[in-house]
Amino acid sequence: MLASPSQTNSASSRATSVNANFVEFTDVFADLAAFTPAANSVYIYGTTPEARSAHSAAWEAKSSGVSFVRQVSHERWSAVFDAPAGPTNLELRNATSLSQFWAQFGGRTTYLDITGLGHHVWAPLLRTASRTIDDLRVVYVEPVDYSRSDAPTEGEIFDLSEKIGGIAPIPGFASLSMIPGDDFHLVVLLGFEGTRFSYLLENVQPPGGQVTPIVGVPGFKPQYPFYAYQGNKSPLLDSQAWKTVRYVTANCPFSAYSLLEAIADSTKLPLKIAPIGTKPHSLGAVLYAIRMGASVELVYDHPIRTARRTVGSSRALVYRVSALLTRNLNAP
Amino acid sequence: MHSATTGFLLSDVPSRTPEHPSTEAQLSQLFGSYKAEWLSEQLFDLFTEPEYWPELTTNRPCMLEGGRGTGKTTVLRVLSYEGQYAVMGRGRESVRNLPFVGLYSRVDTNRVRAFSGPEVTPGVWTKIFAHYLNLSMVLQCLVFAEWYQLRAGDSPLLTASACDEIALTLNLREADTQAELLSGVRQALLTLESQVNNIGETLPDGLSMQKAPVDVLVGHLATAIPRTPFFFLFDEYENFDEYQQRVVNTLIKHSGDTYSFKIGVREMGLRTRSTLNSDEQLVSPADYVRISIAEKLHGDDFRSFAARVCDSRLALIETSDGTGTTSINALLPELSEDAEAELLGGRGLVEAALSDRASALTAQELDAFRAHRLRDQLTVVQWTDYHNEPLDPAVREMLAGSPTWRHRSNNYGYALLFTLRRGRGQGGTQKYYSGWDVLASMAAGNIRYVLELVEQSVLLHLRSGAVYPSPVDPATQTRAAQAVGRKNLTELEGLSVHGAQLTRLVLGLGRIFELFARAPLGHTPEINEFELGDARDGDGDDLEARETSDLLRSAVMHLALLRNPATKLSLSPSDTRDFDYRLHPIFSAAFGFSHRGKRKMQLSDAEVMGLVKSPRTTLPEIVKRHRGAEISNASEPLPDQLRLFESYFRER
User: Fold this and answer.
1) Which of A155, A241, A303, B510 could form a disulfide with A195 if both were Cys (CB 3.0 to 4.6 A apart)?
2) Domain enclosing residue A283, as ranges
3) Are residues A208 and A317 in the same domain?
4) Residue A276 and residue A158 share a domain
5) What ipTM, to 2 d.p.?
6) CA B312 to CA B263: how far, in whole Å?
């Protein structure tokens, strides 16, 4: 099981909502201006029309000796980054291509800001970074709020996704070796969009009683867990999965990781994990999938995001993932 | 607890005790677990053979075609060796006497989508996918062989030389035993997984020749278990990409004596009939038997099958006082049109009209008129009122046996039931949906819908204080039908990548048919179908027609719409213009239109897409074109059960 690290860090502040067991892994900056990337580090990020992905420019302006590497474009299986050596096209399933990308930053502290990057981009980067980067920190900026739908139904309180792209493997995370059949347990890290949960249930078709939804508690905001229930009411009722809901801190990937371990331990079944909730939870799921390999299958629906799905920028969280990845990946 | 009146289906009733579950808990277990994957082993115990079952058990390849919830998965799972073992009593002899060996697998989107992308050519993907298919099918056979050995207490089915031969065909290391071969295949899948996850870096090597390992393996198994054909059961065939279907179609085309294929696929889910050989197509009936559930099970056949399914489940309910079982017909009594007209206030409408407008009718004539069916009386009263005609002569014509009035009553009598409560506010039942025949008809061949309707009807009934197995009253059945319709409408969005569009299409069509139902006189009554107008020439029409075609295809696949050939001659399954489209009757109670498939209107491609993209302008235009100023979206209140979707219909 994942245990608290003994290391300390010099974060400017601590958030009470970060699980106390894992507080040492996370630096929390209530004021975005308080954060400055470490000198001589590398900062990889993407931008979207959302206000909260604009912080990188401010941080770049006040940093010195930091290489900021921006995602220029992306497709389902590839992404282009504006690297120091020029535009770099990354084939997201090509380990050599990804490793070469990371190799140019070897030895430097590297930040991977997942706020403005899609799962299909940051997850394969994370997968390969763990082999090359000694000190990898994942950055996430919480929004002040989410955009509300003009036409809300049970599954649509918030206007977060235009449509569902469809279930397909996240590059590098295709799972072919799990024995096909009924013997698996589905874990769904819930967000606010019940439609996505319904879509997953319809497509994954978990056996009766083998679904564990996870709700972020405490949420980014105190009211968010209630929104999660409101948005997911219909599939929670229909699948009866409301009986098995588990809670874990919304902005703590390590807590999510730890809970996944606990669920796997208790069900004794291979897990299919659907990271459709908060990005920190998704980060926990991806870290867990990297660690567990063939016994875990990530299931993702690739939503097409609404252009301005969030409002403002709240706190910045910096997760020190290298210690976790290195220790567990090297575990016997 | 959740109430249907607040829009949620009743479910999850706590058991009284684990040993003596309440009637509600038993009901939810027997009827609420209407998805095959939820039932686990109980699925086999509750299985009722459909009429088409014998066709599936022959050696011929079959395509079992039907919408979501029509029972494809249940049937395929019962065809599996685990299903046959359970059906035959789960004894050692059951293993030895299996009539066939069905190997079930669901086409998993998350896996098959891994075999695409720009890193390699389509030809290479085809070879990689064919290898994956070989490994998966061989794995299924080997898992069965282990199962057989364990259950039958026999020696392994495969000899050392057979294992070695199979390993060779898969380019695996030598294998002397079944267990070694199984381990090798699992290892090969792991290797393939790694190669696909790094597809841009290296090309997979050691790929096997399509079909060869399966031929060899099944050949050996058939020797070990003679006269027992093997069926590969592929469920949700629509999840394969087109090129992947071509690969499997090739296997189906060339399946031999020892093994065959039974495919479960949604209507319109067979994307291609091509094989890998450009000169060969998969043709029915030469290459496979097409079993359309909708064609095999409709009307009386479906009602009879569904009643058997329900009655067999009702028979398992044990009441604490031992009041015994009931039948679905007794549990869900029907409501005649006249009785429904009474409940909806039709008698009062007739009497008010007679009082206001019948100036010269004698007492005898009045008595004779009142002795007629209430439906006939309403037709005369409402028709004359709408056409501004005097009532007395009409009544006398009707009493004289005028065929005109008989015809009008037949034509409009049922349709008038939708108008009796028009404009009376939104409280109370506007139209009843009651009786086993009506509810089965609303399910339109979909056994999952039947189970939902029955479960919700009885649960609401019990929650109102009634005792099982007393009959469920019409109002309760209606509320259950509304709740089930609304639930399925809400769920549409989560069914596919077109989900949001489908929801909007159903909302638009449902509202139009509801408004038409409220004003039938002077128009064609009971419209709940449409056909596409001729594709127009001109800028952008091709694109629009393609867009409409894609939407309608998805709507049929996900049961938003039903389709029927427009004429017996026009049967190109892929041409959306050759069909009439009917809004699925499971939505009829939620909106308030006729559950019966009756009459159609014409819509253009632009109107169909307009209901999805710009409903607030398109919907009123369509209603106006058909009903003029008689009725409009703005003038008619939304039914209570649709308030949640109000923003779709109304300007904010």
Assistant:
1) A155
2) 10-21+147-309
3) no
4) yes
5) 0.87
6) 27
